[in-house]
Design brief:
CATH class: Alpha Beta
Shape: globular
Strand content: 25-35%
Order of helices and strands: EHEEEHEHEEE
Number of strands: 8
Radius of gyration: 18 Å
Structural class: alpha/beta
Number of domains: 1
Oligomer: single chain
Distance between the termini: 33 Å
Amino acid sequence: MDKDDAPLPLAPPPEAVLEAAVYVDDLDEAEAFYGALLGLERIARVGNRHVFYRLGPTVLLVFNPAETEKPSTNPNLPVPPHGAKGPGHVCLAATALALHAWRDRLEAAGVPIEADFHWPNGARSIYFRDPAGNSVELSEPRLWE
């Protein structure tokens, strides 16, 4: 509440996650991982600042925090500085059948699987790391049903 304790105006809750971000130091490594290995559709890359990928109706933003912590110099895109230190987490949806193929592909590429298990509701998840150390999870969408 503000200093006058006036009630806040009503607003509907957000409808969905439109984009999610991970932070990496090396965009070339990230692009090889998210683009080449995971096969995500690249939308755009801007130098050493970021690379964006489309996943259905959502977007995965891969940022270099050394660049995104700098204030914007473009008055038409006044995005506030942002960044994160240390490993983050992102979960990507995959069918039960696809999870078997993903485990095989990741292991063949030398990407260690940190965990592979079924949640109490029966949904399966596999966890692994991107080259920057971010935790990446592939899970059946029914995880959150």
